[in-house]
Structures are given as C-alpha cells and as structure tokens.
Design brief:
Blueprint: H1 17-24, E1 34-36, H2 38-41, H3 47-59, E2 64-68, H4 74-88, H5 92-96, E3 100-103, E4 106-111, E5 135-139, H6 152-156, H7 169-194, E6 210-218, E7 231-234, E8 240-245, E9 251-254, E10 260-262, E11 270-274, H8 276-281, E12 291-293, E13 301-309, E14 315-316, E15 334-335, H9 336-343
Parallel strand pairs: 1-2
Antiparallel strand pairs: 2-11, 3-4, 4-5, 5-6, 6-13, 7-12, 8-11, 8-13, 9-10, 9-12, 14-15
Bound molecules: 2-oxoglutaric acid and fe (ii) ion.
Length: 347
C-alpha cells in the first residue's frame, strides 16, 4: 500500500556543509539545453510533436532550458528592464509606501530587501538561510487567478498596485505579462502531447491562470557563505517559470550529477524551468530543479521571473497517463490554491 502524499514534492532536504558548498561554489560544466520553439509556434508540420519530445527529454533530465524562438520582441524585454531600474531607483520611502499584499494566495506589491520570511516556510530547501538579499515589485493577473469558481466580487478585487509618477510603467509591465500569458498557454499542448494526453487536456485548468511577475533587484553581495543568498536555494511553486536576466549573472542550478552549474546570461533567450506542479501531475516523472542566486558581481543585478500555473481552484490529480498498476499515484488530489498555501505555511 503506497502512502499518498498530500503536499510535499521536494524530497530530502540536504543542507550539510558539503551540500551547501556545492550550492555556494558551482563547479558543474554539464549543459543547460537550448530549446528552439519557433517551428512549433509557426505551425510547421510535426512541430508540436518534435517540441513535445524535446520538452519531455529536458523535463526528465535537467528541468531548465534556454528558450529560443519565443517571439517576444527584444524591445519589450529591454523596456521592462528599463522600467524595473526606474522603479528600484525610487527613494526607499516611496517604495516602502507601497504595500506587499496577498489576494487569494498570490502576492503583489513591494517587498524590501531582506524582509522576506521564506526561511520559516516550506518553500526553502535548506534550513536557517538568512533573509534574501533581494528587493521585489510583483504583479499578478488583473481580474484574479481564482478560476471559474470566482464570484463577480472576487473578480473586482484589486490585485495590483502601481507607483505614482512613473508614466508607462504599468502599460509596459502589463504588455510583457500578457505576452508571457500567451506563451505559457502555447506550452499547454506541448505538456499534454509530451505526456500522451489530448492536446487540449490542460486548457480547463487555466481559465484564469496564475501569473506572478516580479521585478527583482539584487544588491551586490560582498561575501559568499554563512547561508546568505540573493535568493536562497529553492524550487518554484508553479507549472513553469519564464525568467529574463539582464547582463549580470548570479543564478546557479542543481544539475543531474548533484553539482551546481552557474547559469550564463544568453541574450535573446528566456530561461525556463519546471516547477513543483509538474512533478505532482506526472507522479515524479518530471523534475522541478533546485536553484539559487548569489550576486557576487560587485554590481546590481536585475532579473524578472514570471511564474505560470493553473487557476487556484484547479484540482491537481496525478495524470491518468502517469499511473500504472506498478506505479500507483503518489499524491492525493488537492487544489492548486491549497497546495500553494502549504508551501508558504510555517515549517
Ligand atoms: O533572479 C533569478 O535569476 C532567479 C529568481 C528565482 O529563482 C525566483 O524568483 O524564484
Ligand atoms: Fe526560483
């Protein structure tokens, strides 16, 4: 009899000195693959099948890839970074006047540097990390991410707050957010095909998807060690995450060997990783890869992740193609909202 897990997919937490050293000093030369999605997006014959096979291969090995041919204009990406720099250059009092708030489990607004409390929740994969050396401004999907069960009143709740006196800020962020929503939706048939499911299988779960976008700003970190990170080692609580980096590296990823690899900034690509949700949906066949940030470059680092997941009312059950009599379901059905509540609850 298999004991069904209700929540955790993170596996064993290893934070002995040797594991921490591997995270802090990445020495792997294993390759982070590049995935060119243009043929699929252009509707070329066989494009979906080929792209799905590549996605499957990546998701069962590394769980991180550089996405090429994604169709998001480079100018738009440059503009969001310009807006991020503008925002983070505002006086700290102006930024602190903006709240950091929760609507239905999704967080928006401004969170100053070293004021996160993830170290005391189930999110982190090491214990006792120091508060993260990163400031963030986050937005969520206007109209909410609750799904079809939302009431009209839920839909009217304000999910985003915008700083005054930054003309073009809101429009630029929403334009990029919308372009990632379209791209994320185009991935759904790939996930389905890669798992032997009808190509529209996932659509019902994404009526009003989770799309949290964060403008991250990392000050330089003088010393490495003492469990101090820009972003402490973790996995993402999404289906997948689309990240843009800008000139300055700092991210490192746990590779199949167990060693960590410093991630290069490759202009023109998005960096994509799989999140905890796909592990659960696939009954542990696909990975959610551990990663962390240390900005030891001596200059400020800016990056922009967008976390893409289903609506919070989506019931997440192990997929029918991922169970067999020999490999029964490891996880109980649970809504995406409840699952996220668990990740962000105290450990
Ligand atoms: O800043 C980065 O490169 C990664 C950030 C990250 O891992 C996250 O926000 O979950
Ligand atoms: Fe992350």
């Amino acid at each position: 009899m298999v004991e069904l897990k209700t929540q955790d997919i993170r596996g064993e937490i290893r934070d002995d000195d040797e594991s921490i050293r591997l995270m802090d000093y990445p020495d792997s030369t294993e390759e982070i693959p590049t995935f060119d999605i243009a043929a699929y997006l252009n509707g070329e014959p066989g494009g979906r099948e080929r792209a799905a096979a590549k996605l499957r291969e990546i998701s069962t090995t590394v769980g991180f890839f550089y996405l090429k041919g994604h169709g998001i204009p480079p100018d738009l990406i440059e503009s969001v970074f310009a807006q991020s720099r503008r925002f983070h250059a505002l006086p700290i009092e102006t930024k602190k006047a903006l709240p950091y708030f929760d609507v239905g489990g999704f967080k928006s607004g401004y969170q100053p540097c070293q004021e996160d409390d993830y170290q005391h929740t189930n999110v982190n994969i090491i214990s006792s990390a120091k508060p993260n050396l990163v400031a963030k401004f986050g937005i969520n999907r206007e109209g909410g991410s609750g799904g079809l069960s939302m009431t009209e009143a839920d839909r009217q709740v304000r999910v985003n707050i915008w700083p005054d006196n930054l003309p073009g800020f809101k429009e630029t962020l929403l334009a990029y957010h919308a372009s990632i929503e379209s791209l994320g939706r185009r991935f759904l048939p790939l996930w389905a095909t890669s798992l032997g499911l009808p190509s529209d299988y996932f659509d019902r779960f994404f009526a009003t998807p989770h799309l949290t976008m964060n403008l991250l700003h990392y000050p330089p970190q003088k010393q490495i060690g003492e469990r101090q990170y820009g972003f402490a080692p973790h996995t993402d609580n999404s289906l997948m995450t689309f990240l843009v980096q800008h000139e300055v590296p700092g991210l490192a990823v746990r590779m199949p060997s167990g060693h960590w690899r410093a991630v290069d900034v490759v202009p023109g690509t998005l960096l994509v990783n799989t999140g905890n949700l796909i592990v659960r949906w696939t009954n542990n066949q696909y990975l959610s890869t551990k990663h962390r940030v240390i900005n030891a470059n001596g200059v400020e680092r800016y990056s922009i992740p967008v976390f893409f997941g289903p609506s919070s009312d989506a019931l997440i059950e192990v997929l029918p193609t991922c169970v067999t009599p020999a490999r029964p379901a490891l996880y109980e059905p649970i809504t995406y909202g409840k699952l996220r509540e668990w990740y962000y609850s105290p450990r």
